[in-house]
Amino acid sequence: MTEYPEKTCQIDRLVRQPKLVSAALSGQKTQQRRDGLYAYPGETFELEGVTFVVTEVARQRLGDMTDRDAQAEGYPNLAMYKDLILKMHANMEWNEDGLVWVHGFKRQQPE
């Protein structure tokens, strides 16, 4: 079993931006990177009445991100992801060695 630190934010704040909510609902977005831990594997959250389950949580260096990672975030490529993240977070610098929490999720199937 993997040990995780205490969460830094509530799971309902994991995916908030309307375009990213739409991307998750359409299945284009399956990951969310945050500088803090928002959820543990197995936890669920809702977006517009649809339930999602967190499937994995892992640490990643920003410098290790790929185009595939950016696509899982709902962006066409890493360059666009990086550009939009830097625009969204004033005074943020892209630090290749910066660590983020990758929250993987999927739509929960009805039982």
UniProtKB/TrEMBL annotation:
CDD domains reported for this sequence: ASCH_yqfb_like
Protein source organism: Methylomonas subterranea
Protein name, per record: ASCH domain-containing protein
SUPFAM superfamilies to which the protein is assigned, alphabetical: PUA domain-like
InterPro entries named among the record's database cross-references: PUA-like_sf
